[in-house]
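Working notes for the structural subgroup meeting. M.R. asked for a predicted model of this chain before we commit to crystallization trials. I am recording the input and output together here so anyone reviewing the notebook later can reproduce the run.

Input as submitted:
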Amino acid sequence: MAWELESRLAEIRRAGLQRRRRTLSSAQGPLIRVEGREYLSFCSNDYLGLAAHPAMAEAACRAALEAGVGAGASHLVLGHHDLHELLEQRFAALTGFPRALLFSAGYMANLGVITALLGRHDAIFADRLNHASLNDAALLSRADLQRFRHTDVAHLEELLSRSSAPRKLVVTDGVFSMDGDMAPLADMLAVCERHDALLFVDDAHGFGVLGEGGKGILQHFGLQSDRLVYLATLGKAVGSFGALVAGSETVIEYLLQTAHTYIYTTALPPLLAQASLTALDLLADDGLRQHLQQLIGQLRAGMQGLPWQLLPSATPIQPLLVGESLAAVELADALREHGIMVPAIRPPTVPQGSARLRISLSAAHTADDVDRLLQVLAHLAREL
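Returned structure, recorded in token form:
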């Protein structure tokens, strides 16, 4: 057994697919310290620069003194704190749903929702580029999993029209984490209405970034329906941790009673709920999103004429397509030598032949930061 695992590890190394953890010794932000050296970072999902915001830290410290560090129990035993309850209520009101439920992590929320709502005789229809947590949840549910071509609504409708499953759930990312593009949710919702299906949207990378006041992709497209179940994680643009699922009163009560990843885990520390509540206040500042859009435009304009293609994206996720895994790693290593950190994303996270650098922009970046990245990329284009 040990020999077989070592052989597989050797194959991973030869293919340029070995991952390595790097140890951060600073707060998240545009300038970070990693293993004794300072870098300009384009790695983080902290899209609004809130993870190290002083108001967030102060709120968490106050809550720790008043509510302690750990929740001490699961929500249904006695771990559900006033701060958890307030966060659920604020999120539901913000997104326009009757009710919301707080999970301890986005991965756990996806597992909990999908395995609770569907079983062996039901059917799941999933975008081919969905996040791994959605795919794992679909497999664990034991429902019939059918995957439609990326953002292809006609293919989705074709699959739905052939299904006789008693319960049908369409599952999609709102903003796709490695491509930065958005799901065509208005058309998908219309298809779900025609075929009596629920639509579950994982808006991990859209909440806080899209929509007026950062209310997310549903507000961005002007959508609301009792067929929608909506998830937002708190560890990205919100700068905290955890995840919230919003939906109808019936759906949320059903999840509270049946979702294993909600019932059988310790509740999120109340101090993180307080930090998230503070972040919801900060989200109201549309100036953060306006600055972010200016940086996105600056980056895309500055990449013209360079040999690598930026995939179409109007979000802070700006994927720079390189192609082969070893070439992506080489480019990421070269940037790091110049003091800039951008992650190389390789299979199986993305399809073979589409390895890329995932440039993540933040409202905490400046125009000078983006200009420095562009200058180094232009230099490397000539050098490599």
